[in-house]
Amino acid sequence: MDQKNRYGYQEGFISIVTNLVLFGLKYWAGIVTGSLALVADAWHTLSDSASSIIVVGSVKLSSRKADQRHPFGHGRYQEIASIFIAFLLGIIAYEFLTDSIDKFRQHESTQFGTLAIVVTSISVVLKEGLAQYAYWAFRKTGYETLRADGWHHRSDALSSTMVLVGILLGNRFWWMDSLLGALISLMLFYAVFEIVKNSVDKLLGEHPDDQLIENVTELIKKVSEKEIYPHHFHLHTYGDHRELTFHIKLRGDLDITLGHKIATDIENAIREEIGMEATIHVEPDQVEN
């Protein structure tokens, strides 16, 4: 198992275990204090385990080697899983918004006992810790599912924070809980948008950023002394595996064997120096685009 997949598995399994512990703690506190809201929050925490299970499953599926039917590998399972997690996050955001509106209409404030405050505080710390761990794992691996799972953890931390703030300020501002719930739901909707946008961009194919094009252009100059004009860049992402396609213009009087050698040398250099596969289309410089 490579290091990236190990990070993904670890984040997923740690999240599942932590969520199960928090579910039991919140559910027990809700029964003892008679708080229906805390019991509901416990089930919300348990639902977070679903996204962590998706993370583990997506890492397993995306790590499968390329085969005859899938020559570019299975890395895009990461993007598909991210969209599904975003869907779950969108449902939570919608529930936050509708609950906040209902509370505001009914002039309902948050009232909990000391036990509920302690348990909720523990939940905030642990869930934000899981979120930070998921973001760290995302930076190490680039797996979109880990970033999406981080937002899922943060949604639970935000909901618990909302409860705490409601406890502290609820006696002075009965509408505080409703306002915070609405604001948090808008933050989550924005997170859903960002997760879906990034995943869809990778599924559809992207134009490489300027830095990558500059790196490839400089590498081409090192590989060959011939006059080469690269253009028409496209980037295709399959999890860890990335495919770069572009065209190069060469002098029209060069023979096809030399043109093929130049393209192959550039492809090999990109694989070794940048870590991605490249497919190059060779054109004579007289051709207009």
How would you sum up this structure, described in words?
With 289 residues, the chain is mainly alpha-helical. It has 2 domains: 3-204, Up-down Bundle (Alpha-lytic protease prodomain-like); 210-284, Cation efflux protein, cytoplasmic domain (Alpha-Beta Plaits), CATH 3.30.70.1350. The protein has 8 helices and 3 strands; from the N terminus they run αααααααββαβ. It has helices at 3-33, 36-62, 77-105, 114-141, 144-169, 176-204, 210-223, 256-273, and strands at 229-238, 241-250, 277-284. It has a 3-stranded mixed beta sheet. The longest helix has 31 residues, at 3-33. It starts with a helix and ends in a 5-residue tail after the last strand. The model has no long low-confidence stretch (mean pLDDT 79).
From the structure above, extract its key features.
single chain; 289 residues; mainly alpha; Alpha-lytic protease prodomain-like; three-stranded mixed beta sheet; 3 strands; elongated
Task: Give the end-to-end Cα distance, rounded to a whole number of Å.
Answer: 45 Å
Question: Any idea how many domains?
Answer: 2
CATH class label of the largest domain: Mainly Alpha
Total number of strands: 3
Query: Which spans have pLDDT < 50 for at least 5 consecutive residues?
Result: none
In CATH terms, what is the architecture of the largest domain? Answer: Up-down Bundle
**Strand-and-helix sequence, N→C?**
HHHHHHHEEHE
What is the share of helical residues? 55-70%
Q: CATH H level of the largest domain: which superfamily? A: Cation efflux protein transmembrane domain
Strand order of the largest sheet: 1-2-3
* Structural class category: mainly alpha
Give the oligomeric state: single chain
CATH domain fold name of the largest domain:
Alpha-lytic protease prodomain-like
Strand count, sense and barrel status of the largest sheet are:
3 strands, mixed
Number of helices: 8
Shape: elongated
Give the percentage of residues in beta strands.
Answer: 5-15%
Radius of gyration: 25 Å
Mean pLDDT: 79
